[in-house]
Amino acid sequence: MSDLADQIRARDVRAIARAATLIESHSRAGENLLRGLFPNTGKATLVGITGGPGAGKSTLVDRFIKALRARLQRVAVIAVDPTSPYSGGAILGDRIRMQQHHADPAVFIRSMATRGHTGGIAATTSDLALLLDAAAYETILIETVGVGQDEVEVARMADITVVVLVPGMGDDVQAMKAGIMEIADIYIINKADLPGADRLDRELRSVLSLAKRQDGWTPPIVHTVATEGKGIDDALLAIDAFRNSSSKRQRMIASWELRLRDMLRERIVASIPDADFHSAATAVSQRKRDPYSVVQGWIDAIERRKNG
Amino acid sequence: MSDLADQIRARDVRAIARAATLIESHSRAGENLLRGLFPNTGKATLVGITGGPGAGKSTLVDRFIKALRARLQRVAVIAVDPTSPYSGGAILGDRIRMQQHHADPAVFIRSMATRGHTGGIAATTSDLALLLDAAAYETILIETVGVGQDEVEVARMADITVVVLVPGMGDDVQAMKAGIMEIADIYIINKADLPGADRLDRELRSVLSLAKRQDGWTPPIVHTVATEGKGIDDALLAIDAFRNSSSKRQRMIASWELRLRDMLRERIVASIPDADFHSAATAVSQRKRDPYSVVQGWIDAIERRKNG
């Protein structure tokens, strides 16, 4: 295992892919690996990129990769698709255009389908990001499809969240206020050459003017036409501005708070054998026991085990 | 608080609504109330009703209410909308047609918007269902909008899951295989008078024939035209058949297993002060500590507190 950690620090792409599989399977080996790599992390910037289907996120990501490579950065992409039926590591349709980067060892792309990752999508994404951080990727782009609760949680784990909108979904600005817009650090209006881009811009500004952020950051709105490469540098400048702000430090602490809660939750559940959950559930479903005392009993049992 | 429990057992609608608000706010009072009511639960059948937007779920639910009332049952509805920006208890557009039941004290309808219920939608729904069970509602219909991970988790908490499809979304049968179809106990093809109903039926059967369930249950496919009340009795018969099968007992145990894991997760996180999460997150983000030893330290601290 320490060999694998060394290979990852040495940026060995095959070792990184092997480690990603370990992490996605939530194996103890994956956790031990990350524990060993943790001191090597903290240098990467995690950029979450989210928005509805058809917003052009994959094309944007492709352009970001090119622009960051032109700055000689090492770039990783984690593509999270909560609706995908494929198992971990599958290549999704939209990802095909990214395959041109596969020959470049300084670009690492991982598609993570989330079937079966119930409740743990954000945690797994965060673990993969730690791995890629340790492997010296300087920018890690986390692309999520959709605007549901899963996507919001993944986005909260990033250091910077970019929300991609397109003209012609004006109504959705209202709908989106609820979830993803609360965590947007930067807005991109993609396909900004389409009619309605200015109207969308105005709507967005009026929504933003109503909700001042506690950290003092005002999310900028960047117009792009990703298919033509327009606005990409502006978007990267906006990301840099956030990266250098005090908001980013606050954001990283907030995402670690979420992460620590997640880890504690999973650790405690893993400490109870499946058979115990099954027999307790049977007793509860028959009303022989109540669930509250069952759970309290487990918490008490942690104590006894420590003393045993 | 014991007064409130008594009022709930006495089926006092205003007390039930007040208790629902306590539960949705995740207050300690809500939990204590449910602990006291737990011995009064276990008689209701929880029927999850899910499917994409436009499938006609609300009309179906409305028809189910009427048909169950004709059987002299007390009926409750929990409408869960993960995309709604409204806070708990809001009335959603589609719910308006259900308002005709508001004058009937044997029908209780609660809309639960899920903003801010991060990670706890399914748990809160399950808690509300326990409350309504204790208030002697015999059938509790849990309606969810959409087919994402949140909906799957809500559906897993039900005793019986009904998936509603409509003709003309043939491609979606393939897409849905990933998530919601794995937990469907009964399929309803609603708007079955539209062209394509038979084709959808065939597609569904071919998908079902590929995936035999471990519990031996073969999900029936019921055709309905909810707007005309057609097929509603057939659907209720299918629900009864599942209710009386051994699959339902297995299902209830499985949903309690999920629920106990959820409760343990939340209990353990609640036992750590927010300030501790914040200071640990700060140290981790600065790489002064690693997250794995932080979490282990908390688990150790549970022990010390028990001994203190």
Summarize the structure in short:
Two copies of one chain form a homodimer. Chain A has 308 residues and is α/β, with parallel strands linked by helices.
Protein architecture, described:
2 copies of one chain form a homodimer. Chain A is of the alpha/beta class and 308 residues long. The first copy, chain A, folds into 2 domains: 39-263, Rossmann fold; 274-307. In chain A, 50% of the residues lie in helices and 13% in strands. Chain A is built from 12 helices and 7 strands. Chain A has a 7-stranded parallel sheet with strand order 3-2-4-1-5-6-7, sandwiched between helices. In chain A, strand 6 (186-189), helix 8 and strand 7 (221-223) form a beta-alpha-beta unit. The two termini of chain A are 30 Å apart. At the A-B interface, helix 3, helix 6, helix 10, helix 11 and helix 12 of A face helix 3, helix 6, helix 10, helix 11 and helix 12 of B.
What Rg of chain A, in angstroms, do the CA atoms define?
21 Å
- Provide the CATH topology of the largest domain in chain A: Rossmann fold
Major sheet strand order of chain A:
3-2-4-1-5-6-7
Mean pLDDT of chain A, to the nearest integer, reads 84
**Broad shape of chain A:** globular
From the N-terminal CA to the C-terminal CA of chain A, the straight-line distance is 30 Å
Uncertain stretches of 5 or more adjacent residues of chain A: 84-94
Number of helices of chain A: 12
Q: Biggest sheet of chain A, open or closed, and with what strands and sense?
A: 7 strands, parallel
